[in-house]
């Protein structure tokens, strides 16, 4: 069966039509970023690609192609034996590699010869990436957002989780970025995604949202750790209605001690990370904080961090960056526990502002009376 090709922009809109998305690039290329949901079937693995590239440069293209063909044939045979033998005749894979199509083309040709309906992404991953970047802004701006604001430790992420548990649409950028979004937000042992992968994760999440329902999101800055929030999404967030989440200082400290257990369990690591604030707070202040942590006064240091560093920084930035913050709806949490967060989430989801347009119409007494009159 002949192999079909599909422009990358069209592939963005039709991913759901394929049974399997196959990335024929190396393991390292796949790990850096890939089409969401794609499995990795390397035509050449990491070491083999380096070996063939060296042969190409040091000997000649002909010798490199011969050796590459032998390696590719063995790898493709292994993929077929492992993954394809049990596939039905109507199985439809979408295949891609980096750009030229040599690696994906070899795999697609054999799959097509078996009789499967195989499709290649024109221009490979490189074209896919360009199409995704172009589609990010339209995807972000077709949605309406409710931005959860609040100083550090006020429970914004916990409220997002409570909203998600009740079926709300939630975009958790910190979860996608694998970072807590502050100077001290690095999670030990957890590597952040590449910028390309972060973009892909956001795009994949956005495309699954229903534009008739709001998307709840936290008031992030432009960067979450080492990755940057796409401009189109940032613009949409900053122009959206806000929720002002409030929690007492005592509860905020307790919440942070719970959420940053790796600091509580390893005060030395906390002291190491505090050095990152020397540029902002000065060596003397940071040195005093470190001394207090070593003396066992971590709660005191957390409160001082909030009052002297994070809260002033938040106050300066939130109104400047989020246009509707002055009209933000206040939500006062009684405490940090699950019941209080569940209540706040329920309250938000039951408000007229958070309802889909159709539900808002039905909740309007005049509109409801009109409907009853007609019936």
Strands of the widest sheet, in order across it, are 1-5-4-2-3
State the helical fraction: 55-70%
Uncertain segments are 354-375
Rough outline? elongated
CATH domain class name of the largest domain? Alpha Beta
N→C terminal distance:
58 Å
CATH topology heading of the largest domain: Rossmann fold
**Count of folded domains:** 2
Structural class: alpha/beta
Which tags fit this structure?
single chain, 375 residues, alpha/beta, Oxidized Rhodanese, domain 1, Rossmann fold, 2 domains, 5-stranded parallel sheet, 56% helix, disordered C terminus
In short:
The chain has 19 helices and twelve strands. It is α/β, with parallel strands linked by helices.
Tell me what the structure shows.
The structure is a single chain. By secondary structure, the protein is of the alpha/beta class. It has two domains: 4-132, 3-Layer(aba) Sandwich (Oxidized Rhodanese, domain 1), CATH 3.40.250.10; 142-365, 3-Layer(aba) Sandwich (Rossmann fold). It has 19 helices and twelve strands. Strands 1-5-4-2-3 form a five-stranded parallel β-sheet. The chain has a five-stranded parallel β-sheet with strand order 7-8-6-11-12, with helices on both faces. α1 (8-14) packs across α6 (124-141) and α3 packs antiparallel against α4 (61-84). The longest helix has 24 residues, at 61-84. It is elongated and about 70 Å long. Residues 354-375 have low confidence and may be disordered.
């Amino acid at each position: 069966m002949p192999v079909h090709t599909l422009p990358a922009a069209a592939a963005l809109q039709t991913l759901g039509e394929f049974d399997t998305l196959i990335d024929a690039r190396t393991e390292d290329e796949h790990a850096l970023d890939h089409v969401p949901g794609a499995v990795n079937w390397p035509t050449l693995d990491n070491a083999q690609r380096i070996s063939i590239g060296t042969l190409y440069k040091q000997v000649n293209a002909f010798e490199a192609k011969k050796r590459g063909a032998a390696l590719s044939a063995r790898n493709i045979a292994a993929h077929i034996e492992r993954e394809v033998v049990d596939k039905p005749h109507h199985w439809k894979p979408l295949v891609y590699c980096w750009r030229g199509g040599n690696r994906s083309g070899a795999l697609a040709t054999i799959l097509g010869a078996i009789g499967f309906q195989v499709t290649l992404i024109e221009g490979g991953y490189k074209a896919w990436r360009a199409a995704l970047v172009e589609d990010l802004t339209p995807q972000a701006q077709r949605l309406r957002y409710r931005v959860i604001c609040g100083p550090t430790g006020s429970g914004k992420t916990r409220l997002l989780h409570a909203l998600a548990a009740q079926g709300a649409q939630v975009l958790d950028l910190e979860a996608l970025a694998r970072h807590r979004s502050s100077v001290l937000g690095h999670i030990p042992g957890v590597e952040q995604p590449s910028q390309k992968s972060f973009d892909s994760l956001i795009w994949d999440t956005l495309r699954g949202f229903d534009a008739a329902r709001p998307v709840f999101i936290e008031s992030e800055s432009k960067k979450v750790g080492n990755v940057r929030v796409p401009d189109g999404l940032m613009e949409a967030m900053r122009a959206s209605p806000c929720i002002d989440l409030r929690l007492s200082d005592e509860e905020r400290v307790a919440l942070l001690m719970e959420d940053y257990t790796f600091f509580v369990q390893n005060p030395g690591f906390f002291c190491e990370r505090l050095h990152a604030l020397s540029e902002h707070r000065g060596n003397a202040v940071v040195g005093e904080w470190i001394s207090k942590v070593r003396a066992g006064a971590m709660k005191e240091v957390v409160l001082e961090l909030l009052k002297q560093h994070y809260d002033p920084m938040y106050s300066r930035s939130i109104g400047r960056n989020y246009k509707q913050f002055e009209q933000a709806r206040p939500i006062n949490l009684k405490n940090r526990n699950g019941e209080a967060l569940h209540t706040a989430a329920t309250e938000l989801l039951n408000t007229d502002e958070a309802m889909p347009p159709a539900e808002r119409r039905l909740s309007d007494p005049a509109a409801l009376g009109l409907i009853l009159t007609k019936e």
